[in-house]
């Protein structure tokens, strides 16, 4: 939790490409994780809403290289606000957004794209994940 974070779980964001259950699952997972956030209830609510919004938008995008963009944008803007607000540093909001966007891009693309390729190439995994 903080301005610089790399969450391996964010790689699962691209599961929205394969199953309608992903938005709910990702949001519940985010809520459970953010309960332990040092930013308190604000992070649990706003961070989870960012995940829900990004999941719903990402679910409509069928291109695996573009489906991660909503996660980058919503998390950067919304989680960036939580961190800046909690640090009483709204002047640093855009810097915080940039860090969150970079972290999210690494998680979604560097870790998430290989996950999608694994799902697509492994028939048993594909059957497990795809609606």
Number of strands: 0
Major sheet, described briefly? none
Shape: elongated
Order of helices and strands: HHHHH
- Number of helices in the DSSP assignment: 5
Query: Which bin fits the share of residues in helices?
Result: 55-70%
Q: What gap, in angstroms, lies between the N and C termini?
A: 32 Å
β-strand percent reads under 5%
- Unreliable stretches (pLDDT < 50, length at least 5) are none
SSE-based structural type: mainly alpha
Please state the CA-atom Rg, rounded to the nearest Å: 15 Å
Mean pLDDT: 90
Give a quick precis of the structure.
The chain has helices spanning 22-34, 40-60, 69-86, 93-121, 123-129.
Verbal overview:
This protein is mostly helical. It contains five helices and no strands. The protein has helices spanning 22-34, 40-60, 69-86, 93-121, 123-129. Helix 1 (22-34) runs antiparallel to helix 2 and helix 2 runs antiparallel to helix 3.
Descriptive tags:
131 residues, mainly alpha, 67% helix, elongated
How is this fold's topology laid out?
Elements: H1 22-34, H2 40-60, H3 69-86, H4 93-121, H5 123-129
Helix pairs in contact: 1-2, 2-3, 3-4, 4-5
